[in-house]
Amino acid sequence: MTDRKTELAANLANVEQRITAACAAAGREREEVTLIVVTKTYPASDVRILSELGVRHVAENRDQDAAPKAAACADLPLKWHFVGQLQTNKVRSVVGYADFVQSVDRDRLVTALSKEAGRAGREVGCFIQVALDAGESARGERGGVAPGGIEELAGLVAGAPGLRLDGLMTVAPLTGEYAGREQAAFERLMDLSTDLRRAHPAATMVSAGMSADLEQAVAAGATHVRVGTAVLGVRPRLG
Ligand SMILES: *Cc1c(COP(=O)(O)O)cnc(C)c1O
C-alpha cells in the first residue's frame, strides 16, 4: 500500500470503530448509520483510494471543486452528496453528478433542482437543511431553513418532478440556544424528522454529525454522519 492509502485506511478504521461504539452505546445496529466521507479540498486520488477501501458515499461542498473530481471518479461505485450552500446558477452542474443534495433550503432552489433533474433525466435525493440557530422563519447564516419553514419546503420537494424527499440535514450551530450542545441540537433535528415523517413517511434520513460530534449524532438517532477531517486529515485550506 502507498503511504497515503495506509494513512487513510488507519483513519477510516478509527472512524469505523467510533461509529460502531456509538451504535453499541445507543443500542443501534451499525447498519442503521451510513458513513459519508467529506472529501472537499482533497484530490480525486484520495477519493479513488477511499473507494478501494470500501467507502461508498462521499460529499463535497463547492461545485467548482466537486465537478472535476466527480468526473475523474465517474468509474467508481460512489454516491455523491452535495452538502454546501448552493446557488441556483450551479444547479445544472451539480445535478450532473450529485445523487443527493443535502442543502435544500429555499423554494427557488427546489424549482431549479427539479428543472435540471428533469432535463438530465435524473432523480436527485433531497435533504432539507435545517438551521437550528435561525429565528423561527428566517434562514441560517450558513444556509438552512428555520424549523418553521420545513413543512412548506418539504411539500414543494415532494411534489417536484425529478426530486425525492429523503429527510433532514443539519450542522451543529455555533450560536444561539444550541451552541455547544450538539446532542440537544441533534435530538431537536430528530423531533423535526418525526414531525416530517407524519406527512412524508419515506423521508427517513437524518444527516447530522461530523468528525467532532458523530457520537452525539448517532446517540440522537442520525442515519447519516458526514466525516471529513477524521478520515482525510486537517484540511489545507478553509472549505
Ligand atoms: C466539511 C463538512 C463536514 C465535515 O466536517 P469535518 O469536521 O471535517 O468532519 C460535514 N458537513 C458539512 C456540511 C461540511 O461542510
Structural account:
Helix 1 packs parallel to helix 8 and helix 7 packs across helix 8 (214-220). The two termini are 28 Å apart. The chain has 239 residues and is of the alpha/beta class. It contains nine helices and eight strands. The protein has an eight-stranded parallel sheet with strand order 7-6-5-4-3-2-1-8. Helix 7 links the parallel strand 6 (163-170) and strand 7. It is globular. The structure holds pyridoxal-5'-phosphate.
Provide the descriptors you would attach to this structure in a database record.
single chain, 239 residues, alpha/beta, 9 helices, 8 strands, 42% helix, globular, binds pyridoxal-5'-phosphate
Average per-residue pLDDT, rounded, comes to 96
For the largest sheet, list the strands in their spatial order: 7-6-5-4-3-2-1-8
Ligands in the structure? pyridoxal-5'-phosphate
Shape: globular
Largest sheet: 8 strands, parallel
- Helix-strand pattern, N to C? HEHEHEHEHEHEHEHEH
**Helix/strand-derived class?**
alpha/beta
- Counting DSSP E segments of at least 2 residues, the number of strands comes to 8
**Tally of individual helices:** 9
Whole-number radius of gyration? Answer: 17 Å
Strand content: 15-25%
Helix share, percent: 40-55%
Low-confidence stretches: none
Terminal CA distance: 28 Å
